[in-house]
Structure formats: structure tokens, C-alpha cells
Amino acid sequence: MATTCFTRPAFLSRVVPVIVLHDPAHAVPLAHALLEGGIDVMEITLRSDAALASIEAVARAVPQMHLGAGTVTRVAEVQQVINAGAKFALSPGCTDALVDEVKKALLPFIPGVMTPGEVMLRREQGFTLMKLFPAAQAGGLGMLKALGAPIPDVAFCPTGGVSPENLPSFLKLPNVAMAGGSWLTPADAMASGDWKRVTQLAREATDLAASA
What residues act catalytically? Predict the structure, then answer.
């Protein structure tokens, strides 16, 4: 598969864990716990000082994990996450400068959108997979259904307000490729190193996705 910003990352899971790590030592056991639960993708967000070191740790120790950097909002962060070992990036929104940078770097990228105009703009720039964020505030299931009629050639990863309760409903929509959520890595489980709980949550999410 060619590595361009238009290429969807090659992970199989339809559930993308959105992860905030405060201790890089947790990154590798977390990656193994998710893999054991059937999830082969991680979105480690740049929301903490430990993010880049956590990406580096997973990239070195768990090469089978499809490793993404989330909350990439500045041009300078593109090269930073590439240097750390991320194989793709996601953003809660998008700017033309960010698009130019990921294209230059040939980094697969999932831009964040919230309105039909943003979807059309990013499609013109070559993107056909986008992150609807924040999904709940953007209209959730209703918005995705509405977007599917006039813009059927774009797929989405709704994130923000996705839960085990509504995950199957999102994944049943024809224009939803995957969904992102933070419930897979609860803060208390992360702090205590309860990797068995993470694996169980990952298995439950994988089963829900399979039934959608």
C-alpha cells in the first residue's frame, strides 16, 4: 500500500482508542493489552508531555500495532510525530497549512471536520476518510445520515460522544468506517496499570463492532 496522506491506515479494528498517556512506561503494556483484546490501532494524543515518548516506546517495542498520533493541530507537530514513530495522524480540526505539511511529509492523515463545507473542502484536497469531531455536538448519528446522501464518497470516524451503548448504531451507518473513543482506556485503569481491564474493554468493543 502506498504511503500518502490519502491512504487509509491499514489497521483492521473498527474501534480506535483515543488515548491520553501521562507515563511513557504505560505505553507498551497498554499496546499489548489492546492487541490481546483484538484492537490493532492506537491513537496516542498530543495532550500530555508524555505523548511523544509514549509513541516512541510503542513504535520500538510493538511494531505490529498501527500507531497513530492524535490531536495534531500544528504544522511543527507533523515532523515531531513522524520522528517519534507514528504511522499516521489525526486532528480534531484542520487547516490548509496542516494539509500542506502532511502532504509534503507523505503522512497518512485523517482530518477533523464538523460541517458539510469542511467535508467538501477536505474532499477537494484529496481526503476521503475524515474524523467527525466532536461527533455528539456535530449532530451524531443524524449528521452522519444527512451527510451520507449528498456526499456519499466520504467515510467518517466519529469521535466524541461515542460509547459502548451507541457504538453499534454508528458502525451500522454505511459512511462510518470506524469510530473513536476514550472509554477503552479509563483513567483509573491506566493509573493503576490494570491491563486486564483494558483487554476486557477491548474485547467487548471488538465484539460490538463485529455485531454491527
Answer: 43, 131
